[in-house]
Design goal:
Elements (H helix, E strand, L loop, with lengths): L16 H12 L39 E4 L3 H10 L6 E5 L2 E7 L5 E7 L7
Parallel strand pairs: 1-4
Antiparallel strand pairs: 2-3, 3-4
Length: 123
């Protein structure tokens, strides 16, 4: 039976695609500068699709109805990179399954940086 294998991408509209691509390259290290980035499938962990209640404040301060979650290999290093680029980290949180930090892109999209931590259930 046919089934979905995971998230294939996130596509966003931009008034200035070059400026947005530059920001993602400078702040988050996206390579290419052409307005897109591609990564191999994760060797560990998972890709998650999750529906949130319409009244959630988890995406705040963004007013958009979605949020971008990016897997990172070194959360502390990414936070340092973001701050060195002059951007603000909105908050951080550590959980048993991962470490998180949040920032906003120039279009008001909330970005969640996630460093996966292997749990006992995964081993």
């Amino acid at each position: 039976m046919a089934k979905v294998l995971g998230i294939g991408g996130l596509f966003v509209k931009a008034q200035d695609t070059a400026a947005l691509a530059e920001w993602y390259g400078r702040v988050l290290g996206f390579e290419g500068g052409s307005g897109h980035a591609m990564w191999p499938p994760p060797a560990d962990g998972f890709t998650l699709w999750s529906a949130f209640p319409a009244a959630t404040d988890y995406f705040d301060p963004s007013s958009l109805p979605f949020m971008l979650n990016l897997r990172v290999d070194d959360l502390d290093g990414m936070v340092a990179r973001v701050e060195a680029a002059g951007e603000t980290i909105l908050g951080r949180q550590d959980e048993s399954y991962g470490r998180f930090a949040w920032l906003m892109d120039p279009q008001g999209l909330k970005i969640e940086l996630w460093e996966h931590l292997e749990t006992d259930a995964e081993t």
